[in-house]
Amino acid sequence: MKLLIMSDTHGDEEIIERVKSYHPDAYKMIHCGDSELPYSHSAMQNMERVKGNCDYDQNYLDEVLIHVNGERVYVTHGHLYDVKSSPMKLVYRAKELGANIVCFGHSHILGAEYIDGIFFINPGSLKKPRQIKEKSFVTVTISPTHYLLDCYDDKNNLFDQMFIER
Q: Which residue range or ranges hold the Calcineurin-like phosphoesterase domain (predicted)?
């Protein structure tokens, strides 16, 4: 089962549509906030989406918990949990919700970490990346024994992978 995860596209509806077209086989498509588009915008349709600090449409929720094949996937932007300083507030929230996977953005820094049995994923930014040159998004393939994270640039070139045994 594959998830497509992106964040921090800051008004670029074209890149959202392009990235969605790269992986039409994804079971769920997730935007971790700061799309800067209206909630009902066509580019945001058929996506799980949350409110970032640059999103002003009141229809966005601050967080969403998705059930995917027995997994609990928690999605938030991250600004409400000070993710630029430390992951700990987000770790505590994920534990409260019983999440297996956490998807967040805000820092524009691509990264993934396995903390206390929870897989934390920041897909970076498709508009203004930090610490790497690639404008990035990720896919996560979920199997009963592991997670496979694939990191792509905005042209769908795979440039990194992470394998996590559970």
A: 1-143
**pTM (two decimals):** 0.96
The beta-strand segments (E) located in 97-156 are 101-103, 111-115, 118-122, 136-142, 146-153
Q: How is the chain split among helix, strand and coil, in percent rounded to 5?
A: 15, 35, 50
Q: What CATH topology corresponds to 2-165?
A: Purple Acid Phosphatase; chain A, domain 2 (3.60.21)
Q: Cα-flanking dihedrals φ and ψ of residue 165, to 5°?
A: -80, 145
The two structure tokens encoding residue 116: 């206390």
Domain coordinates in residue numbering, the chain: 2-165
pLDDT for residue 69: 87
Q: Quick one: tokens of 14?
A: 């074209």
Whether 78 contacts 107, CB under 8 Å: yes
Quote the strand ranges of 54-157, DSSP E. 63-68, 71-76, 101-103, 111-115, 118-122, 136-142, 146-153
